[in-house]
Design goal:
The protein has one domain. It has one helix and four strands; from the N terminus they run βαβββ. The chain is an alpha+beta fold. The longest helix is centred in the N-terminal third of the chain and has 13 residues.
Length: about 60
């Protein structure tokens, strides 16, 4: 189960389908966020890289 919004969500759905992985997308009105996790198995540590996200305009 995962969120799937706009083009990024559509790309995620295509990638999961291409890999033959079962998934249940939940449609959202905004883009799905992208992130990268780098794992260092030898020391059991992971690093999460999350690109910046646009902030809403002030009211």
């Amino acid at each position: 189960m995962h969120t799937a919004g706009r083009e990024v969500g559509a790309r995620l759905n295509r990638l999961l389908d291409d890999e033959g992985l079962a998934h249940l997308p939940i449609e959202i009105g905004d883009d799905t966020r992208e992130a990268l996790v780098i794992a260092e198995r030898e020391i059991a540590r992971s690093y999460h890289v999350v690109p910046g996200w646009p902030r809403p305009a002030p009211r």
